[in-house]
Design a protein that fits this description.
Largest sheet: 3 strands, antiparallel
Radius of gyration: 45 Å
Shape: rod-shaped
Structural class: alpha+beta
Oligomer: single chain
Strand order of the largest sheet: 3-4-5
Number of helices: 3
Low-confidence stretches: none
Mean pLDDT: 78
C-alpha cells in the first residue's frame, strides 16, 4: 500500500494547475470567487489523484504478476541447469574413479621380523590349500586376517570355510 501512496504523491506533484480541466464551465470566471476556484481545483486534484492511484495500482499489480511468472520461469530453468551440471559432475567423478581403479596397480606386502609375504602369494596359497582339502565349490570370496606375531594368517572362504596358513 505504501508504494501506491508514493506513486499517487508523485503523480500529484507532476500535475500542473493549467492541465486540470474545469468541469463547470458555464459560470463566468468573474462570477467564481477565488475560494470557489480553490475548492474546485482541490476537488479536481483529488479526482486526479484517485484516478492516478487506481491506474498505478493496476500497473503495479500487472507488473507483480509478470515478475512472479518470470521468477518462476527463472527458478525452473536454474533448477534444470543445476540438475544437469550435478549429473555431469557425478558422471565425470565416476569415470575418473573407474579410470583410477583400472590404471592403479596395487602390490601389498606384509613385513615382520625379517619375513616378507606378498598379498597375492598369500591368497594363492590359501586357495590351493582349500582345493587340496577336497572342496569343489568355486572360491567367490576370501577374507584374510594376518597375525604376524603368530606367524600365520587366518582365512574364511565363501563365508563358510575357515582355516589358517603359516606365513
Amino acid at each position: 500500500m505504501e508504494e501506491k501512496e508514493k506513486v499517487a504523491e508523485e503523480t500529484v506533484e507532476k500535475i500542473h494547475p493549467d492541465d486540470v480541466e474545469v468541469v463547470n464551465e458555464e459560470k463566468n470566471e468573474d462570477d467564481i470567487s477565488s475560494a470557489e476556484m480553490a475548492a474546485k481545483l482541490k476537488d479536481d486534484l483529488k479526482k486526479a489523484v484517485s484516478m492516478a492511484t487506481k491506474s498505478a495500482s493496476k500497473s503495479l499489480s500487472k507488473v507483480g504478476k509478470e515478475a512472479g511468472k518470470t521468477a518462476k520461469e527463472v527458478a525452473k530453468t536454474a533448477g534444470e541447469k543445476v540438475a544437469k551440471v550435478k549429473d555431469e559432475t557425478v558422471k565425470a567423478a565416476k569415470d575418473t574413479m573407474d579410470k583410477v581403479k583400472k590404471d592403479c596397480k596395487t602390490e601389498f606386502y606384509i613385513q615382520y621380523q625379517g619375513r616378507e609375504v606378498k598379498e597375492e602369494d598369500l591368497v594363492e596359497q590359501i586357495k590351493k590349500k582349500y582345493q587340496n582339502e577336497g572342496h569343489e565349490a568355486a572360491v567367490t570370496s576370501v577374507k584374510v586376517y594376518v597375525k604376524p606375531e603368530d606367524g600365520c594368517a587366518y582365512y574364511v572362504i565363501n563365508d563358510e570355510c575357515a582355516g589358517q596358513i603359516q606365513l
